Amino acid sequence: MVAAEIEGSPERPKLRLVRRDDVVDAARAMDAPTRSLYCSRIRDIARLYRLDWLVRQESSSAYGTLEALEDDDLINLHWTMERARECISEGVALDEAGLVRSAKMPR
Fold this sequence. Notes:
This protein is mainly alpha-helical. The chain has a domain at 31-101. The chain has five helices and no strands. The chain has helices at residues 2-7, 20-28, 32-49, 52-58, 71-90. α3 (32-49) crosses α4. The N and C termini lie far apart (80 Å).
C-alpha cells in the first residue's frame, strides 16, 4: 500500500524566490477604503484652511492629483497638511515652518 501511494505521488511543487522587499511592499500597500480616508482628510483640510496650493505643491510629481500619489507620498502629504493646519491654528507662518517651497517651472 505504501509503495502504491509513493508511485502515485503528485509532482513536486514549483518554487520561486520571493525577495524580502516584495513582501514588505505588499504588506504596506494601502487598501482602497484607507486611501479614500486619507484623500478625504487632505481635501477637507485644504478646503477649510485654504491649503489647495499646498496639495498642488506636494503632488506636483503626480500631475497634481491625490489619486496618482504613491501610498508613502499620500501619507507624507497628510502629515504635511496636519502640520500646516497646526501652524495656522498656532499663528506660525507657513514659510517659517518650511512648508512653502520655490516652484520649479518648466522652461
